[in-house]
Specification:
Blueprint (H helix, E strand, L loop, with lengths): L7 H7 L13 H12 L7 H6 L6 E4 L5 E6 L5 E8 L13 H8 L3 E2 L2 E2 L2 H6 L4 E7 L4 E8 L3 H13 L7 H19 L6 H9 L14 H6 L2 H11 L5 E7 L3 H12 L22 E7 L5 E9 L6 H13 L4 H7 L5 E10 L3 E10 L5 H18 L3 H18 L3 H15 L4 H11 L2 H11 L5 E7 L46 E4 L5 E6 L5 E8 L13 H9 L8 H11 L2 E6 L4 E8 L3 H13 L5 H18 L3 H14 L15 H6 L2 H11 L5 E7 L3 H12 L24 E6 L5 E13 L5 H12 L4 H9 L7 E4 L5 E11 L3 H18 L4 H13 L1 H4 L3 H13 L6 H10 L3 H11 L6 E6 L1 H9 L5 E4 L3
Parallel strand pairs: 2-8, 9-13, 15-19, 20-24, 20-25
Antiparallel strand pairs: 1-2, 3-7, 3-8, 4-5, 6-7, 10-12, 10-13, 11-12, 14-15, 16-18, 16-19, 17-18, 21-23, 21-24, 22-23
Length: 947
């Protein structure tokens, strides 16, 4: 643990004397002072000052084969981000080949000629974080952050799939990944409003336009993808001269030159890809489309094609979108959500791509309201902004929020790598991010108004989604045409140098944890991180969803929602505007065990941001009108959960496992049920606040670039005179016995579902405060790793799912074990059977192998530095260490303890905890398709309605 001396004298000089025990009694003068502090003006640093804090130094060079390499040196942690961006995306796909760019992204993870087998399996041993690949209209990128001693092997693997891939791309690999991608498509399409994206693209862009089709593609085109076609996609687009490689982190330019020349230099150039040109189309007349879906409320949208990210009008349009519906204080929020209360939520956004952009406005209509009237009001608000323009103050608040967000994104070396790569790929300039920052800092109301007048007065595509029955789903063919083997040219393999070894990865050096108390005894747990000038604060209360009484489910989370709707001195809009001026974000929420008020702010605005946070927590208005608005939003939210497969399952399974008398025996969404929400009063929520959100039930966690003395002084000014109310502090009762497990299948009918969600679980015989490290490492092999037994089977072998996972969900008390497996509907029964077989095999017949043990141990220990790269990650660790009764230096003990594990240790821990004979299997899917499959399993079947 890094040691840093803390001067007690400095602490005492900076703030009132530290209390070593609670001191709740305060003089009346202190209360008056607190009120004055919380109602004062909130000074904010100028946006130009925040812009000056954003800097990503870089150097750039190019190999002889055309590979552009950008290097950013950041020695804060012994990790390097490897981010490679290929200048090809779905807009470059020819007719009949939609989805190929994304399909090929999946093929890139199947192994290469000199590193056969799963790329992810090999990378797992390196200890990567942020490991993934993504495809979008304009690019395909691959990225991972690895410990510095593993960098050479990461570059070998990345270069091998750039230059030496095709020998490992055969018909079997193609057919498997085709199935995985089609299940990814089903999973997205199966969500409420999931088919909207296709309608929007087809409405805005004419036939033949590069942006008309979605990145995921059509089932028919994916069916038709042949081996030679996808091989040619690689040959045409994956040459080094069509890529940008960024190395960001613990590396310098000289080292980068040597390594990239060694591993990438011999790869020959490929064809030059000129990204598809695309104009910004204008509709000849307004388009009105009405869709129906199994949704809880009507959604209204307005959509335009607009210029892309390099246009001078991109920033003004983005600012206009934020003012219209992006800010919490937006025009549409004030008019429709907080004003006449005819909408439950609104949004407006600019999606800026390379060649074009899409400007969209969305209003979710409150059930029972006249959608036509809401639509007219929506258009009136938009037209008023277009005709009269925004205010200077609105524009400034958007700019401050944008710059604060960029500032926080710079903590991760991968975030900086992506910023530099995007600028180079689209603008030819890694400093493009600075031009955008300067544009936000200098944009004027006149520029915003002019851009909106030019582009949003053209004909609009209005798409409405109403509750109703979906149109028939277009499924994949039973036998894809592309699966027919066709003779292909043999691939000439090229032998390379041996794969480099991974060097010694040093153990984690976690920041020193310091503790103090405020004047009233509230404990402060603190760590200093000076990567960026940002402070994160979490005020945590021992409450959470488990604080709900069994006859008042949802009351606690509803009370938390109401806190953000105003204080005694600031209404909801004033609160939102204050946060926006400060570039701060206050979010109040809960887990099962804790309720938290989280603050993130540029440190320059820490004092004012804490004043605002204190006002929210200490002085809630509990306004009757705001309460009715929040209640209506909650009721709509519950109705929405009943349309979402994951939420349906999360509401159903915990009560079956824990029983309804347990604080954990309620839906893990925490939203409650309609009857309870309708019966609550403002007084009920005020009582809930007094019972749980109080200084004698609070701990403050802080990660900041400022020293503890300064931070503690600011906290004491905001919270040090907070006294508890007279009401008794809340207590959670876990005394009820758990029900006897009754293994069975619980079927919940959700018609027209192209996928089924299998959600199974049991209550483990362990609690979150016990030492679960051995069990968790063992279970990574069984259920949570990409190459886990269950994911390898259902995704990587059978292709029936986009991904499955099984593992413990940590809570303070008895821990649940959940399996989450979305699978194609016609494979539901077989998938349950396969999952049962994998669990039985692991727990009874074939436990952890030595190879699996080595992969898990290496991956878990080598990834530690990357897991604690950001202040957000460190803050969460401070909180979880306290919640689960771990020592402050717990992260530093993980590596040595993990390396000591044997396969026998892991087997014993898993077998002592996990018992598949106790699993309850919830299936959310189309009963007409699924039930016959489930009956063949010979298990008891119980049907439940959606709750």
């Amino acid at each position: 643990m890094r040691l840093r001396a803390v001067s007690i004298a400095a602490l005492i000089a900076a703030a009132p004397a530290l209390a070593v025990a609670p001191a709740w009694a305060q003089a009346p003068a202190a209360l008056a002072s607190a009120s004055a502090v919380q109602t004062q003006e909130l000074p904010a640093a100028p946006v130009a000052e925040l812009v000056a804090e954003v800097d990503i130094p870089w150097s750039r060079f190019q190999l002889d084969n055309g590979l552009t390499v950008i290097v950013h040196e950041d020695r804060k942690a012994p990790v390097v981000a490897v981010s490679i961006w290929y200048n090809v995306g779905s807009k470059d796909e020819p007719a009949g080949s939609t989805g190929f760019a994304h399909l090929f992204e999946h093929l890139m993870f199947g192994g290469s000629e000199n590193a056969p087998g799963s790329y992810l399996g090999r990378m797992r041993a390196l200890g990567p974080t942020n490991l993934n690949g993504t495809t979008w209209f304009d690019r395909t990128n691959y990225f991972q952050t690895v410990p510095t001693p593993a960098l050479e092997q990461a570059l070998f693997l990345e270069s091998d799939r750039m230059g030496y891939l095709l020998g490992e791309v055969g018909q079997e690999v193609l057919d498997l990944q085709r199935g995985v991608v089609q299940n990814e498509k089903r999973q997205g399409d199966n969500q409420p409003y999931g088919l909207f994206q296709y309608a929007r693209l087809e409405a805005l862009f004419p036939e033949g336009h590069p942006y008309r089709h979605s990145t995921i593609g059509s089932m028919a085109d994916l069916d038709a993808a042949s081996l030679e076609t996808v091989r040619n996609w690689f040959r045409d687009n994956y040459g080094p001269n069509n890529a940008v490689l960024v190395l960001s982190g613990d590396i310098d330019e000289a080292t980068a030159r040597t390594m990239t020349e060694r591993y990438f230099g011999a790869i020959p150039r490929g064809p030059v890809n000129e990204p598809a040109q695309a104009d910004v189309p204008t509709l000849s007349e307004p388009v009105n489309i009405v869709m129906r879906d199994r949704v809880a409320n009507t959604r209204l949208t307005r959509n335009w094609a607009v210029p892309g990210m390099l246009s001078e009008e991109a920033v003004p349009l983005s600012v206009g979108a934020a003012i219209l519906g992006g800010l919490a204080s937006s025009r549409l929020d004030n008019a429709l959500v907080r004003g006449d209360e005819t909408a439950v939520s609104v949004s407006a956004f600019l999606q800026a791509f390379h060649r074009v952009g899409m400007f969209g406005v969305t209003v979710n209509v409150k059930p029972g309201e006249d959608a036509a009237e809401v639509s007219a009001q929506m258009d009136a608000v938009l037209n008023d902004l277009i005709q009269n323009g925004p205010t200077e103050e609105e524009v400034a608040r958007v700019a401050t929020g944008y710059v604060a967000g960029v500032l926080q994104s710079l903590e991760q070396v991968n975030g900086k790598a992506s910023t530099l790569a995007e600028g180079q790929l689209y603008a030819g300039d890694p400093n493009h991010y600075r031009r955008e920052l300067e544009a936000y800092a200098s944009v004027t109301p006149a520029q915003v108004q002019a851009a909106m007048q030019r582009w949003l007065t053209r004909p609009v595509a209005s798409i409405t989604i109403e509750p109703g029955e979906r149109e028939a789903y277009v499924e994949a063919a039973a036998t894809p045409s592309g699966a027919t083997p066709v003779p292909a040219e043999p691939i000439q393999r090229v032998e390379r140098m041996p794969m480099p070894e991974i060097g010694q990865v040093e153990d984690l050096d976690f920041p020193s944890v310091e503790r103090a108390r405020l004047s009233n005894g509230i404990e402060v747990v603190y760590a200093q991180v000076d990567t960026v000038p940002v402070t994160r604060v979490s005020v945590s209360f021992d409450a959470g969803y488990a604080a709900d009484r069994s006859d008042r489910l949802g009351a606690h989370s509803l009370m938390l929602s109401l806190l953000e709707e105003g204080t005694r001195t600031r209404d909801a809009n004033a609160l939102a505007e204050a946060q926006e001026r400060l570039g701060a974000s206050i979010n109040i929420g809960a887990s099962m065990d804790r309720s938290t008020a989280n603050l993130s702010t540029p440190t320059a605005n820490l004092g004012s941001s804490l004043t605002l946070l204190a006002d929210v927590l200490r002085n809630p208005a509990m306004d009757a009108d705001a309460f009715e608005r929040v209640r209506a939003q909650r009721l709509t939210g519950i109705a929405g959960e009943r349309t979402q497969p994951a939420a349906i399952a999360a509401r159903a399974l915990p009560p079956l496992l824990y029983g309804t008398d347990s604080p954990y025996g309620r839906g893990f969404t925490g939203t409650g049920d309609e009857a309870t929400i309708r019966a609550l009063s403002v007084a009920d929520l005020a009582s809930e606040h007094a019972t749980w959100l109080r200084p004698d039930n609070a701990t403050v966690y802080v990660v900041s670039d400022r020293p503890l003395a300064e931070v503690r002084a600011e906290l004491d000014r905001a919270f040090g005179d907070w006294t508890p109310p007279a009401a008794a502090r809340g207590q959670k009762n876990f005394g009820a016995a758990l029900p006897t497990p009754q293994p069975r299948i619980v079927l919940i009918d959700r018609p027209q579902s192209p996928q089924s969600l299998i959600y199974a679980g049991q209550v483990l015989p362990v609690s979150g405060t016990e030492d679960l490290l051995t069990m968790n490492v063992a279970n990574s092999i069984l259920g949570t790793d990409f190459l886990s037994r269950i994911n390898s089977d259902l995704r990587e072998t059978k292709g029936w799912s986009y991904g499955v996972r099984g593992g413990p969900t940590l809570v303070e008390g008895r821990v649940p074990y959940f399996i989450n497996a979305p699978v194609q509907a016609n494979r539901t029964g077989e998938s349950i059977q396969a999952l049962m077989a994998q669990y039985d095999r692991f727990l009874d017949v074939e436990g952890v192998t030595q190879a699996e043990r080595d992969r898990a141990v290496n991956g878990n220990t080598r990834s530690l530095a990357g897991q604690y790269e950001t202040s957000f990650q460190i803050l969460n660790t401070l909180i979880s260490n306290d919640l689960y009764n771990r020592p402050d230096d717990y992260p530093e003990t993980v590596a040595s303890r993990t390396r000591a594990l044997t396969p026998a240790d892991m087997d014993a821990a898993a077998r002592a905890a996990i018992d598949p004979d106790r699993f309850v299997w919830v299936v959310v899917g189309d009963a007409s398709v699924v039930r016959p499959q489930l009956e063949a399993l010979g298990m008891p079947i119980e049907e439940l309605p959606i709750r």
